[in-house]
Amino acid sequence: MKSITIYPKNEKQKNLLQSLLEEMKVRYIIDKTEKNASMTQEEFFAKIDSSIQQAEKGETKKISIEEQKALLGL
């Protein structure tokens, strides 16, 4: 069975979802780390726009093939 990832907006939503899942006897995991915090769609597009502007201004850095492989663990 495929899993579903849900990102509640606040503690109230989290608690409600948790109660619902317990009532339905659905197995779930609450990730304690903050690394899964997602950005809003507006934040995502703002980052993309910022990156495009940096590229248009020439504010990019070229890395060698060896550096690319090292970064990607190849």
From TrEMBL:
Q: Which domain of life is it from?
A: Bacteria
Q: Which Pfam families match?
A: DUF2683
What's the protein called, per UniProt? Prevent-host-death protein
Taxonomic lineage is: Bacteria, Pseudomonadati, Bacteroidota, Flavobacteriia, Flavobacteriales
